[in-house]
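Quick log. Single chain, no ligands specified.
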Amino acid sequence: MSGGVLRRRVGARLLDYMLVLVPTAVVGWTAVPLVQRAVTVQAQRVGRRTGGRIVSSGLDTDVLKDTARDSAETMAKTASTFVMALLLVSMVLWFLYDWIAHAVFGRTLGKIVFGIAVVPVHGGWRAGMVRGLVRSLILIGVPTALICYGWAYQVAERADQPLAYRVISWVSTGGLALALLPGNRALHDRLSFTRVETTR
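-> predicted structure:
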């Protein structure tokens, strides 16, 4: 396949993601008051926990600094959890959209706009449920799991990362780079026995 097909694939992918991102952003915007309330509740809990220490310390500056730091950390973690939840919702929606569209129609709205479709390597006009599932799991499911795993490690304040995490991260990145080779088939294409072809 030519470089033109690769450009179409990237364009279609970006368009598809925007179709999922916009509704997720709208949901996120409506949830902002809930997040503000959650942050306030968390800050009040920290305040109650440390209020006794502040009073008994006679307003010791070190205790005040510790309290301010605890409050800031709590609010940051709450906001981080909200952002992560939004990202997770977005990725789940994208996964379902990608899987069903390829399984049933052989292409997403983005691929229709850019004139490409996903077909089985050995013939046929659509990927089908199993090939579509494998394709979406590799393309969207694995990166989502890696993002969640990395976030959990960060929240747990652990600096070390298991070798398996690093290996899977590099394989995922390299898997997308395979689309640059002749045949234009990335890892998710190869493992699902599909290919992308032009429709016009």
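Residues 61-105 form the longest helix (45 residues).
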